[in-house]
Amino acid sequence: MKRLLAFFLLAGIFFSCTRNDYVQISGRMEHGDSIVSIWVEDSIYNFPLDENEYFSGKIPLKHNGYATFLHNSLNLYLNPGEDLEIYVDALNFSSSLYFRGSLGGINSYMKEQEVAVFFDKDYYALEEVEFVDKMQELIDEKTQLLEAKNFDESFTRLEKERIRYSVAERVSFYPVYRKRMYPQENYRPGPVFTDFLSSFSLNNEALFGANDYRAFLLNYVYWQGSKGHGTSENYSDGIADYILSKVTNSTIRNFLLTEIVYRHIWENNGLNGADYLLSVFHRECTNKNTIAYIDEMIKYWERLLPGRTAPSFTVIDREKDSVRLEDFRGSYLYVTVWATWCVPCKGELPYLDQLQKEYIGKNIQFLTIATGESTDRQEWRKFLNQNFHAGVHTLDSSGGFSRDYMIISVPRFILIDPEGKIVDSNAPRPSGHIRQLLDSLVL
C-alpha cells in the first residue's frame, strides 16, 4: 500500500510539472478552415478540426506571454499550466467569438481591447506636441481600465507594456498622415515625436507574440531605416542596416529580416534590387525554418530573372480557344496581367491601346491575361464586350499562368523576347516608361 501511495505521489508530481510546460487549447470554429492556427514564440501551431468542427491540443510554453490567433490576427494571452477554450463562427468572427477556461476572463478582456474604438484618425490633424500629448492620454486611459480589472500582477505588468506599444503603433503613422492632410507644410518629425517613439524598445521579446508589438517594430524600422533613400528601389538596404545596428534580440531580428525580404519581393514583383538584402538575410538570420521558406520563395522567383526561359502557358480567349506562349515565338511579347475588379488595371487599358498603335509594324505583339477562376469568365466577357480594347484578350481560368509567373498583385506587365526568354518579368506599365525599353529592343 505504501508503494502504491508513493507511486501516485510521484505521478502527481510528474504530471504537475509537465502541466506547467504547456497550455491546453481547445474549442470550436464553425464555417472556417480545416485547421485553427496560433502563432506562439515565432512558431505556428496548427490544430485540425474534427467532423463536428471541434479542435484540441497543447502548446509547449515555458512562460506567460502573448500569442496571435492567425485567423483574424487577434491577440491572445497564454500561461503555462492553464487552459483556454475558443469558440467562434468564422462568418461573424468578432460578434461570435467568446472564451472559456481558466484563461477565458483575460482573453475576453483582450478581445474587448481589440474591438474597442480608441483611436480617431482626426488625431493626425493635431500639431505634433498636441498629438503626442493625446497619445499619452490614451495610454493612461487604457491603463486605468486595465487596473480596474484586478488581474494578476504578472499579466497586468505585461499588459501595461502592450498597451503602450498598441498606441505607439498608431503614432508611427503620424508623419505619413500629417503630410497627406497638409501637403503644403512639408512636415518633418520634430524632437517631441522622435523622442516619444525612441522611448520604445526594439528588443522586448516578452511582447513579441503580440500582433501590435510586431506591427510597431515593422513601422518603426521602415521609418528609421528608409531615411535618406527616398523612393529608391534599394531603400530596403537601409532598413536592413538599421536592423543590424539596433536589434540585438535574435528572435526579433530574424522576424524583421524575414519580413523586409518578403515585402521587398512583394513590392518589386521579384528579386530586382534584392542582392544586398538577401546577402544580409542569409548571413544574419538564424532560424532554419525561415531560411528554408525564403530560399524556396527565391527559387521560384529566380525562374523569372532576365534571360531565363519563360514558363510555357496556355490561356483561353473569348471564343474559348487555347492561346499558348509558343504562338508568339519570333516576336517580342508584352503581356498585361489584370483583373476585372482592379480599377488601376482598367485604367491602364487605354494606355495599352495607344501603345499598340505606336508600335504597329514593329516586331512586337500584345497579349492581355485576366486572372481569376472560371466563375469570373462572364464578368470578363461582359467588360470586353462593353469596352473595346485592341490586342489578344485571354483569361487564366486554370490559374496555371498566375502560379508559374508568381502573380501576387495586379496590374503586372511582362516582356518576353522572340526566343521565349524573359526580358523583364516586372516591366514598366503602358502609362510609364515602357517606350524607352521597347525602343531599345524593337526599333
Which keywords apply here?
globular, disordered N terminus, about 450 residues, alpha+beta, four-stranded mixed sheet, Immunoglobulin-like
Could you explain how this protein is built, in words?
This protein has 443 residues and is of the alpha+beta class. It folds into 4 domains: 22-115, Sandwich (Immunoglobulin-like), CATH 2.60.40; 120-224, no CATH class; 226-302, no CATH class; 314-442, Glutaredoxin (3-Layer(aba) Sandwich). The protein is built from 16 helices and 15 strands. The protein has helices at residues 2-19, 93-96, 104-115, 128-147, 153-171, 174-181, 191-198, 211-225, 235-246, 250-268, 275-284, 288-302, 343-358, 377-386, 400-404, 434-442, and strands at 22-30, 35-40, 43-48, 54-60, 65-69, 74-78, 83-89, 98-100, 314-317, 322-324, 332-338, 364-371, 392-396, 412-416, 422-424. Strands 10-9-13-12-11-14-15 form a 7-stranded mixed beta sheet. The chain has a 4-stranded mixed beta sheet with strand order 4-1-7-8. A 4-stranded antiparallel beta sheet has the order 3-2-5-6. Helix 5 (153-171) packs parallel to helix 8, helix 9 (235-246) packs antiparallel against helix 10 and helix 9 (235-246) runs parallel beside helix 11. It is globular. The chain starts with a helix and ends with a helix.
Structural class by secondary-structure content: alpha+beta
In the sheet with the most strands, the strands line up as: 10-9-13-12-11-14-15
Number of helices: 16
Top-tier CATH class of the largest domain? Alpha Beta
The largest sheet is: 7 strands, mixed
Shape: globular
Mean pLDDT score: 90
Unreliable residue runs: 1-17
Radius of gyration: 27 Å
Distance, first to last CA: 98 Å
Under CATH, the topology of the largest domain can be stated as Glutaredoxin
How much of the sequence is in beta strands?
15-25%
Strand tally, please? Answer: 15
Total discrete domains: 4
CATH architecture descriptor name of the largest domain: 3-Layer(aba) Sandwich
- The CATH superfamily of the largest domain turns out to be Glutaredoxin
> What proportion of the residues is helical, as a percent range?
40-55%
